């Protein structure tokens, strides 16, 4: 079997998650997080739109992890992101983390706004 090392470019892989935390790039982060090319920061949830909209032009798709179960995001948030040119994919946080890593490994311009599981 031949193994290839995955390169994430300027992205940071999501190493794991648990109740109330994420492990990103080897570092534990408590609470909700926003992972964008070249940065990881706390995220204030659905009302914290400024850093999401500021990512326009740097990402094509934002994965929104809604916690342990899939849930709808506010319509105004979805419309604002789409108006800025950012596609939105909503899923439970676990699948969002896994999807983020796959797309990041493919070199896609991806971001993730994650509520804890």
**Name of the CATH architecture:** 3-Layer(aba) Sandwich
* Low-confidence residue ranges: none
CATH superfamily (homologous) name: MTH938-like
Instruction: Report the end-to-end length measured between terminal Cα atoms.
Output: 35 Å
- The averaged pLDDT comes out at 93
Shape: globular
Helicity range: 10-25%
Beta-sheet strand percentage? 25-35%
The count of DSSP E runs of length 2 or more, i.e. the number of strands, is: 8
CATH fold naming: Hypothetical Protein Mth938, Chain: A
What Rg, in angstroms, do the CA atoms define?
Answer: 14 Å
How would you write the strand order of the largest sheet? Answer: 5-4-8-6-7
Topology summary:
Blueprint: E1 14-18, E2 21-24, E3 27-30, E4 33-36, E5 39-42, H1 50-54, E6 61-65, H2 75-83, E7 87-91, H3 93-105, E8 110-114
Parallel strand pairs: 6-7, 6-8
Antiparallel strand pairs: 1-2, 2-3, 4-5, 4-8
Which labels suit this protein?
single chain; 117 residues; alpha/beta; 3-stranded antiparallel sheet; 3 helices
């Amino acid at each position: 079997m031949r193994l290839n090392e995955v390169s994430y470019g300027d992205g940071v892989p999501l190493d794991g998650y648990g109740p109330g935390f994420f492990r990103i790039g080897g570092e534990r982060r408590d609470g909700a997080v926003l992972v964008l090319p070249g940065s990881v920061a706390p995220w204030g949830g659905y009302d914290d739109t400024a850093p999401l909209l500021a990512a326009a032009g740097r990402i094509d798709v934002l994965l929104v992890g809604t916690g342990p179960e899939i849930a709808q995001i506010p319509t105004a948030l979805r419309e604002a992101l789409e108006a800025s040119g950012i596609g939105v994919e909503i899923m439970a946080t676990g699948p969002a983390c896994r999807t983020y890593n796959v797309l990041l490994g493919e070199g896609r311009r991806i971001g993730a706004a994650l509520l804890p599981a």
